[in-house]
Amino acid sequence: MAYTGDKWYAQAYQDAVMQLAQQKGSALRNLVWVKETNAEKTNFERLAGTTAVAKTTRAVATPNVEMVHDRRTVTLVDYHWATQHDWFDDVRMLVDPKGPYTESGAWAMGRAIDDLIIAAARGNAVTGAGANVALPAGQKIVEGGTVGMTLAKILQAKRLLDAAEVEAEDRYFVLGSRQLEDLLAVTQITSSDYAAVKALVQGEIDSFLGFKFIRSERLAIASSKRFCMAFQKRGLGLAIGKNMMTKIDERPDISYAWQVYMGWSMQATRVEEERVVEVGAHEA
Question: What's the topology of domain 24-46+71-282?
Answer without folding.
Answer: phage-related protein like fold (3.90.1690)
